[in-house]
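Continuing the batch. This is chain 6 of the set; chains 1 through 5 are on the previous pages. Same settings as before, nothing changed between runs. Recording input and output for traceability.
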Amino acid sequence: MAYELYYWPTIQGRGEFVRLALEEAGADYTDVARERGVDAMLSLWDAQDTSRPPFAPPFLKHGTKLIGQTAAILHCLGTKHGLAPKEEGARLWTHQLQLTIADLVNEVHDTHHPLSAELYYEEQKREAALRAKHFRESRLLKFLGWFEQVLERNPRGRSHLVGARLTYADLSLFQVVEGLRYAFPMATERATARCPCVVALNAAVAQRPRVASYLASPRRIPFSEEDIFRSYPELDG
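Output for chain 6:
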């Protein structure tokens, strides 16, 4: 039975973390809004007979199961498709890493929307400049440096965040680094110069056959200024 992924059809956003896991797993899935239109997503999202309605996309449907929240979706996919460890403690550690990535993604979003997601960037540029400055100078390296430590301290080697095999957390860290390089190229170059293990992981994930094929395909939506990771030169430095 194929998975049905529900997410906005023109942006990577938080849905991209799920797409990467589905692609790496070689899972059969439909990207519903891209293939059937946004109304197909909205009709399920707004359905009045859903006892466990998702708060917002992305959400994943598989049979009778409907799962919302990126980290929860990945926890499920990781368990089913070998992208999470079998041992419970390691699975929880992987989930913790994913939640930390979610924190980082939220902070990136708030560099261009520090006041409200309901306002345009142009309506909060002054506040965005200050928020981005703090992010570049303090938060960016704090996050990437922590992931560097996780890789350095992995008892099974520095190639993966958890254990000796790829997990969905590795895929998600890859996506974050790609997004940071797009949004903050200068600041990210400085930060990653101090995080060689993170850089090596990013390169290794990009070379995995299924990931590489996906990245080269039209299924990979380009970064844009309608997304979480946005390239505003005035916010970089």
